[in-house]
Sequence to fold (230 residues):
Amino acid sequence: MSQKLNMSRIKLKGINNSLIKKMNNIRGVNIKCVHLNNGELIDIHVKSGLVILFVSMGSGRIIDSSNTRYDKKLGSNSFFILKACDTFQLEAKTHGTVIVEFHLSDYNVQEYESNLPMIIEEKDKVLVVDSNKTPITTSTMWLQKNILPGIIIGGVSSRGENKVPFHKHPKIEQVFISLSNNQAKLVIDGLHVDFHENEVIHIPLGSEHGVVSSNQGMINYIWLDFIEIN
Fold:
């Protein structure tokens, strides 16, 4: 199935490195995951483009080694976005902290540098009306269009039986990150794929896709749009 669709997924519990390599089929975007235990540190040095960090599980702390005044907490379901030449350290504050990293190596963010570094927390998301979704669906916007070049981040949630209608994105590569209690089916080009919590799934360019949940299910995920990446 993955060969036919060029689809790939990462399960954030018990990560298999070979799966991570398969995920990196979005041109200009390199994706990796890091597991950290309480107190562990990783160095983040962006050589080019843009890096988006997402704290999927646990919590952390971001420190700028060149600026002792920059010391920020990162809770679960939060983003930290930094640009080329930035150097930070991330310290895990809980056992089993999981970081999903998107490195957009070809991005030129020079005119957007004043917006970075940027933290986006769950409390920052904004409710939006999406006419393509059902009335029981909650749609949110985490990073709106034109804040950063070619990147939009949003979310979808609902309880019980529901459906995100089938649709296509001819010029957009998408990545879904499922959040806690997400229990649904992801349908891609007619094939039904289990879509459970703590997973990262690539939605291939131009594929018809939608999400379906049962009476006992729940839809709860974040989507990242990568638009016309060169």
Q: What stands out?
A: The domain at 124-227 is CATH 2.60.120.10 (Jelly Rolls). Confidence is low (pLDDT under 50) at residues 1-6, 14-22. The radius of gyration is 17 Å.
